[in-house]
Amino acid sequence: MDLVIRAAVIYAIILLFTRILGRRELSSLQPFDLILLVVIGDLIQQGVTQNDLSVTGVVIILSTIGVLQVLVSWVVFRFRRLRPLLNGEPVVVVQDGRPIERNMRRERITVDDIAEQARLNQIESLEEIKFAILETSGQISFIKKGED
Asked: Do residues 91 and 107 touch, judged by C-beta distance below 8 A?
């Protein structure tokens, strides 16, 4: 039972950590970030297992995390009001060619980040954008002016 409790606590901490970290950072991992995630994964494993290297322990931990993930998915599906809390909400970062500074600051993205993504979508300048939306996945989607 100790393994189940530790796995559940770590799951909750990881869920909170990813919500605090922000979706943009998670969608654009740099090599250092990837290495850091591997190190964090190892530290989490050590904290959860506490030297229990048995196959049974691994099965219990994986089952607990799997059940929690399915439970969270079901809660998000079933209870609409919890979706923004657990999944986040899309955020408009550009409207009618103008960056929305407040939203960009809150999501910790720059005009350069938006311009880079716009170029990757064959958009030359922000003036061509009716809406740029930071999606819950961390990607930026664009609606060009004149495309209603």
From this structure: yes
Residue 60 · residue 4 · CB < 8 Å: yes
Supply the DSSP string of 46-94, one letter for each residue: HHHHTT---HHHHHHHHHHHHHHHHHHHHHHHH-GGGHHHHH---EEEE
User: How does pLDDT run across 51-103, given as a tens digit for each residue?
Assistant: 776 777 778 877 888 888 889 889 989 999 988 888 888 999 999 999 999 99
62's tokens:
């994986």
- Is the four-CA dihedral 91, 20, 83, 121 of positive or negative sign? positive
Residues shown for the chain: 148
Tokens 């495309």 appear where?
147
- The kind and range of the H/E element at 26 are helix 23-27
133, two tokens:
């939306």
Q: Whose structure tokens read 């999944």?
A: 87
132, β-bridge pairs: 94, 142
Most confident of 4-13, 23-32, 79-88, 123-132: 123-132
Q: What's this model's pTM, rounded to 2 decimal places?
A: 0.65
Asked if residues 140 and 117 have their Cβ atoms less than 8 Å apart, the reply is yes
